[in-house]
Amino acid sequence: MTKYPLTWPTGWRRTESYRRDQASFSKAKRQLSVHDGTQRIIDEMRRFYVHENNVIISTNVRLRLDGLPLSNQAEPHDPGVAVYWKKQGKDQVMASDRYTRVADNLAAIAATLEAMRAIERHGGAQILERAFLGFTALPEPKNWRDTFRMHGLDPHMSRGEVLSNARDIYKRMAMEHHPDRGGDPEKMAEINRAWSDAQRELGA
User: Fold this and answer.
1) How far apart, in whole angstroms, are the C-alpha atoms of residue 134 and residue 112?
2) How far is Cα 139 from Cα 157, in angstroms, rounded to an integer?
3) Strands laid side by side in the 81-87 sheet
4) Burial class of 61 by CB neighbour count within 10 A (0 to 12, 13 to 18, 19+)
5) Over the stretch 82-119, which tens digit does the pLDDT of each residue have?
6) Structure pTM?
7) How far, in Å, CA of 174 to CA of 152, rounded?
């Protein structure tokens, strides 16, 4: 998984864009920033004794070389957030795309972690353990570039050329692997997911 672009966890349902809500997790008059939301998650993870080096916060917010968000960015088309971490040696993930802003989806995950910590404080360790089982991370999906690179994708093209190249490869692969033509449904699902991820990353 990557910090940028967003690596949405396999098997997690997406929220259709028209169903996303506006929210405000700010405690002051100013809007919550992506940095603020990220810090809330890191703070909650620390309270679960999970070091930030074991946490990956994945979004469509472009990053500087030092890993911090670039300033003055427009809100990405896909405001989803996925947080991956290790707890007791197990890979786990929590994701949110309910809200229209990345910062609010970050805060929503932090609030969920805080609520789970409250369960732990009130003696619900077994309940909490079972709850965390529901956030066990599934195997990381293959990156769309890897799927298409094997069939001729040139990563050195411009952004628009890469998208056009990926579209052509997708059409060829779909013709070859479509179940109606005797192809493998799982392979077709991988191809469709790769094309969807390509469009989301490249802003199609």
Assistant:
1) 13
2) 30
3) 55-58, 81-87, 90-96
4) buried
5) 999 887 777 888 999 999 999 999 999 999 999 888 87
6) 0.63
7) 15
In a domain, 7, yes or no: no
Rounded Cα gap, residues 103 and 101, in angstroms: 5
Within-domain flag for 127: yes
Domain holding 187: CATH number? 1.10.287
Q: What is the pLDDT of residues 22-79, one digit of tens each?
A: 887 766 557 889 999 999 999 999 998 888 888 999 999 998 877 777 777 899 999 9
Q: At what angle do helices 185-202 and 159-177 cross, to 10 degrees?
A: 170
Whether 52 and 24 share a structural domain: yes
Tokens 């890191």 found at: 42
- Is residue 141 pLDDT above 70, yes or no? no
